[in-house]
Write a sequence for this structure.
């Protein structure tokens, strides 16, 4: 069934009205007409069977069926050091498919990419659309939040106190990701820090450890920054019984 992301207020009304880009997408991309059936998801974990009841010059009206709520899953956040090119878009798209709940693009000492405030706002809007589309395609009813780029330690300090902070770190004292993840309380939030090309500076790792982080490793393979983030998400999804 065709799926469409629509923010639906709570409690859910019997009907929602689409305007602007969403109206255009439904009529001219999905090519739906009056009477067509589809699934609406609201990005918070709710979904609805829906039907196009009326098409007007500026609006499309959708009737909503009973709400379905996705089962809760462990919230996993990714603090990704800003990489070059379009690598972050890959992490956002595939990370959404692998169950990430939030993404924090972070500036680190070795980040080559530097974003001015206006550019950062524009990129965040684009990144948000990428995760919305990825959620639609992989049939998630929730949409991960993409935070505005910020310094690494600022993002780490903003995490909820109950969050287990794991840092991909290839130093000798790092423990396997699986071991550290199994030690986390069932269902408790986890945040994963991934450095950019060149990794994290030792001072950054030390500052994160001072905040309560634990260094972890994916093993002996040397992975690119975007591969490391996705491999780690896959490991955690597997250990939580959601993959494999």
């Amino acid at each position: 069934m065709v799926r469409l992301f629509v923010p639906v207020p709570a409690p859910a009304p019997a009907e929602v009205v689409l305007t602007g880009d969403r109206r255009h997408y439904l009529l001219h991309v999905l090519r739906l007409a009056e009477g067509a059936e589809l699934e609406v998801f609201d990005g918070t974990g709710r979904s609805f069977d829906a039907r196009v009841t009326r098409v007007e010059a500026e609006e499309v009206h959708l009737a909503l069926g009973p709400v379905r709520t996705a089962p809760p899953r462990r919230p996993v956040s990714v603090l990704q050091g800003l990489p070059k090119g379009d690598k972050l878009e890959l992490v956002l798209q595939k990370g959404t498919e692998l169950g990430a709940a939030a993404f924090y693009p972070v500036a680190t000492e070795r980040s080559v990419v530097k974003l001015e405030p206006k550019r950062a706002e524009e990129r965040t809007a684009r990144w948000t659309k990428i995760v919305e589309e990825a959620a639609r395609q992989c049939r998630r009813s929730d949409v991960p939040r993409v935070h505005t780029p910020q310094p690494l330690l600022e993002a780490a300090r903003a995490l909820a106190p109950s969050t287990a902070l794991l840092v991909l770190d290839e130093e000798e004292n790092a423990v396997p990701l699986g071991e550290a993840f199994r030690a986390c309380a069932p269902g408790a939030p986890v945040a994963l820090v991934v450095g950019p090309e060149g990794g994290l500076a030792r001072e950054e790792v030390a500052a994160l450890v001072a905040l309560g982080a634990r260094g972890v490793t994916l093993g002996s393979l040397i992975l690119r920054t975007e591969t490391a983030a996705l491999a780690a998400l896959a490991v955690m999804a597997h250990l939580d019984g959601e993959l494999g």
Observations:
- The radius of gyration is 20 Å.
- Helices lie at 20-29, 87-97, 117-137, 152-158, 177-182, 202-210, 225-239.
- The longest strand covers residues 46-55.
